[in-house]
Amino acid sequence: MSAAPDHAPVHAHRPAPADGCASALLQAQRVTLTRGNRHLVHDVTLALPRCGAVALVGANGAGKSSLLNLLAGQLAPSAGSVQWQGQPLAALSVRERARRVGYMPQRFEPYWNLTLRELIDMRLDGAVTTDRVLAHADLQPLADRRWATLSGGERARGLLAAVLATDPPALLADEPGAALDVQHRLALVTALAARGRSRLVVVVMHDLDLAFECFDRVIVLQHGRIALDGSPAELLHAPALDAVFGVHFQRIAVPPQTLLRARPAPTSPDHRPQAPMSRDHPAAPAANTPPTRHGAPDAH
Ligand SMILES: Nc1ncnc2c1ncn2[C@@H]1O[C@H](COP(=O)(O)OP(=O)(O)OP(=O)(O)O)[C@@H](O)[C@H]1O
């Protein structure tokens, strides 16, 4: 979004990425992915810089994972191209691509029932030790556990540590925090945002509050296209955000943050809140004001 917001930036506390970050590392040029007669990703053009924490958000089925797969070179576009520093990503060998792009899929099942230590060992090329990777991610207690015995959140943490073990210039992660408890999710998102100061980090996520609080840029997908693309300060108050997600967002100011609280969209008769019945008039709504939890103010 290019228009300057008419409100104070809500995330002024977030440090700016380091100098030399702005040049494009990964680019999608008019990329389309077609399956059957449907465009899962439709004519997307996007430039992702050398550093920055980018959140990729959108409703279920919007095409986030498909776009991430294209950017990681896991899928070939039906039209258009993905470029790494101006060169076609597809021209790189699998090994070269893996060195540049750390890709964390939404689901991962290794063929063998490896221990976490073995999984990380397989990724390393001698620059760091597996013990150091495990220690850095606070995963030593799980090191010798087999993959099948790990919980969903433990797997996610282990997989991310394995992907980051080689310190790739770009990390593309698909809902890495989905299975994490609140403490680990916060730690994860904070770490990813910090990584964005010196590397490119692109994360598919559903938690809009964390995306807007911690990331430098938010890209909103809708029906395979980019609906919105800008800084959190620019997008937080964009009315189009409500339309994309089919809800009405209350913007709740909790300085220095603004939280989004989703209410049913007022235009949708199916989503009107059910009013409690009054004793005297069972069919009549007891109040015509939509309920607000915690009495939170709407910043609009
Ligand atoms: N191989 C395929 N063939 C046909 N349709 C597919 C295929 N892969 C994905 N889709 C469809 O494409 C759409 C986009 O899928 P994608 O996984 O990219 O969405 P998403 O935004 O990541 O969704 P979610 O938030 O639910 O994970 C969905 O409607 C999905 O059902």
TrEMBL record:
Keyword match Nucleus: no
Span list, region Disordered: 258-300
GO molecular function terms attached to this record: ATP binding; ATP hydrolysis activity
Biased composition (Basic and acidic residues): 269-282
Compositional bias ranges of the Low complexity kind: 283-292
Record key words, sorted: ATP-binding, Cell membrane, Membrane, Nucleotide-binding
InterPro entries: AAA+_ATPase, ABC_transporter-like_ATP-bd, P-loop_NTPase
Domain ABC transporter per the UniProt entry, residue ranges: 26-248
PANTHER family: ABC TRANSPORTER ATP-BINDING PROTEIN (PTHR42794:SF2), HEMIN IMPORT ATP-BINDING PROTEIN HMUV (PTHR42794)
Protein name as it appears in the record: ABC transporter
